[in-house]
Gfo/Idh/MocA family oxidoreductase (Christensenella massiliensis), 388 residues
Amino acid sequence: MKKKLNIALMGSGFMGKAHSFAWTLVNKFFDVPYEPVLKVNFGTDEDITREFAEKWGWEEISMNWEEVINRDDIDIVDIVTPTYIHKDMAVAAAKAGKHIFCEKPCAVNYAQTKEMAEAADKAGVVNYLNHNYRRVPAVAFAKQMIEEGKLGTIYHYRGAYLQDWVMDPNFPLTWHFKKDLCGGGPLFDLSSHSVDLARYLIGEIDAVTAVNKTFIEERPLPGKRAATFTAGGEVNSEKGKVEVEDASFMIAEFENGALGSFESTRFASGRKNYNTFEIYGSKGALTFNFERMNELQYLNLDDPADEQGFKTILVTNMTHPYAAWWAAGHVIGYENTFVHAVADFLKAVEKNETIEPNFHDGEKIIRTLEAAALSSDEKRRVEVSEIK
Ligand code: SOE
């Protein structure tokens, strides 16, 4: 019998589903040391929270997050709320001695990420920041190939994360458009993932030059069920001000000498979750597109010149990272990446080990994004170290 660990899920939206799926399935496919128990779900709207909890199998619901976090029977606090409250919840969880699994982006600004990291370090709790795309098998395999030297010296990193879910000017003014609640638009929501992947795959960023742009300045106020990807059905004639960018383009100078770029937008028509990277090195290149997440494109400059070209590697073999699902060629999906994260997190909890990315990675990512926002505001190149 595995030891049971009680989970408190803070939030019940789009990410709540993905996390609930992961806690439920992790033991079926991965050899993890614990059995997670879906104990309590915190939400702000009682009807929505009850519906969600019943559907996903949470034993109880609560409308009081502080009480939930401080319950003696809770072992793990899983934060899937809008970004503005990550810091308060994470600091409270650390103080209460709970291990923390937290959605990205880490927080709404660099100062908050520092507080989160400090609180977690002081309490000695395991803390994990869920940039889940690191745990796509093809991405973890790309990392392996880069570490083996297959690309040689890296010259370029191009990260583009494109979506289109708010292109309709009547898409409501959800928390994703209010700076205090989200920290930034696609820069925080999407480029946070791209910067995480770039740091994971090729290294740290020293300086950035960016331009942010807002296309729609006002939107209708949101109804009760408006959420990520969902207008919610309610039509409201009153409008409010959009406080964040709709698109962000950034040039990045890496510590190792590579030159990179990051594009993020919610206005790329037809692009739904187009999270891509291209890495070019002295010995070859790798490209990845999340919408084809089981594949990596690889160019090897050692191939005979007249046979050179990108080949597709189908990253589903039992020798590839996170092989636990099906036989080779039986592709996996978005939700599986959350199971991988939960599996690694539970192993880290058992050994009380550091897992990556964590709040310290969050600090570095948000610092880079803040530097990009400053660069766009002041129309100049910004060293990441300028952000205090
Ligand atoms: C909305 O842009 C969103 O849900 C992001 O917040 C997630 O991090 C991404 O994985 C999918 O899109």
